[in-house]
Amino acid sequence: MSRLSVRKTYKLFIGGAFPRSESGRSYVVTSPKGDFLANASRASRKDARDAVTAARKAFPGWSGATPYNRGQILYRIAEMLEGRRGQFAEELPLGKKAGLEQVDAAIDRLVWYAGWSDKIASVRGSANPVAGPYFNLSTPEPSGVVAVIAPSDPLLGLVSAVAPVIVTGNTAVVVASESSPLAAITLAEVLATSDLPGGVVNILTGHQAELAPWLAAHMDVNGLDLTGVADPDLALRCEQEAAENLKRVIRPSSPDWSADPGIGRMTAFMETKTVWHPAGV
């Protein structure tokens, strides 16, 4: 006998839970050929504020965790993603073969960043020579809450933008790709079952033009990644709003996500703390 399929409901991911948008709105997601795929939640400004609140609440515990522990959790995310690679490949608008290749690349990228978790401080920190009986030490620390406007690359680009933010101890509010948000919410299901504390990553689906300026203007957001913003006017507005509390900003770009990412995205949202300490005689 034939049976009705149980269609997936794509919700938001805020504070480790999967709420619907408080506005009750949704929007249609279609394939590159225009075929209907799903209805995704359309997040509101209230949802964005809730996500920032959740990210701020999670920040002390996440930034206070050992770098080794953060690396273990990122590696666990990669393990969970490996177990669902077939599902992710089907949700990417690339075809099965190309989809599997992108999923594998996203897994490798997570493992790569996991390996940096307990090394970035050694690379970016330093013991500074000073003229006096002091030790002068500089160490990198996370900035706080970072808003990420995710690139249109629905999985590898998303992972490449979010992983460097959280591996260094920041928490994130992510606006998923507007045209291809399905993999982002499925990734949220992976995050929810991979030991990542609730609120460290919060994922919103909806319209960039509605959410990005409010996140840029939010006074409890410390950094802003505009990589996925394609509209120059929107990007300019976001940069102007971000200047109000001196947010660190990554400007819009179209990087080759398959290339070696380097450490630039990890250090973009880190502050340097310098400590003076008397030297023993």
Automatic annotation (TrEMBL):
Protein name as it appears in the record: Acyl-CoA reductase-like NAD-dependent aldehyde dehydrogenase
Q: Name one Pfam family in it.
A: Aldedh
Tell me what organism the protein belongs to: Nonomuraea dietziae
GO MF annotations for this entry?
oxidoreductase activity
Ordered alphabetically, the record's keywords are:
Oxidoreductase
Record domain Aldehyde dehydrogenase: where: 22-249
Q: Work out whether the entry's keyword set contains Endoplasmic reticulum.
A: no
Q: Which SUPFAM superfamilies match?
A: ALDH-like
